[in-house]
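I had to read the description of the data format several times before I understood it. For illustration, here is how one protein appears when written out as sequence plus structure tokens:
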Amino acid sequence: MSRRIFLLAALLTLLTACGRSTPTNYYLLESSLGPVQADGLPAKSLRVAQVCVPEYLDRSGIVSRVDGQTQVIVAQFHAWAEPVSNGVRRVTQEVLTPPLLAEGINVLPSGDESSGDFTLLLDVQRLDGNFDDKAVLETRWTLRNRDNAILGRGIYASQEMVRGKTYDLLVGAESRLVRRMADYLAEKLPPLMRGKRS
């Protein structure tokens, strides 16, 4: 009888342990900027279009690479709190807003899908990294006017060291990459909007 009770208790313990799962941690790309205030908004506007990402990034689990090779790992318990495309778009809008306001251009918020005077299209080719190595961002960008004419286009690529083996460090490096891309665009776009080729 005591052996049967012991086996039943052991089975209940196993079932209880199996019922507990590792909690999922959620992450956001971060712009690290404070809020922007403006008493009035300029008449001209820029819309950052929905960002394109490759299929391997279009998932909730954070993607990392194995030794910089073609093999990738999709984290099961470390996930994006929003689609990666939305995060890149949000951070780009946040970083572009202050310098473009100073240039007389209002960066439209994501909910405002009106055409805008200018449209920035971002096509992310790569945004991933290796622990204890580097994170990589590669993006193609295109600036169009209201008539859909191309004012400028280019490729932005950058790397950032990941000094450790945690997802906090990987996401932090990826956030800095997206911010640097947006800083680059903040310098590159205004002359194109004024009709000057750079």
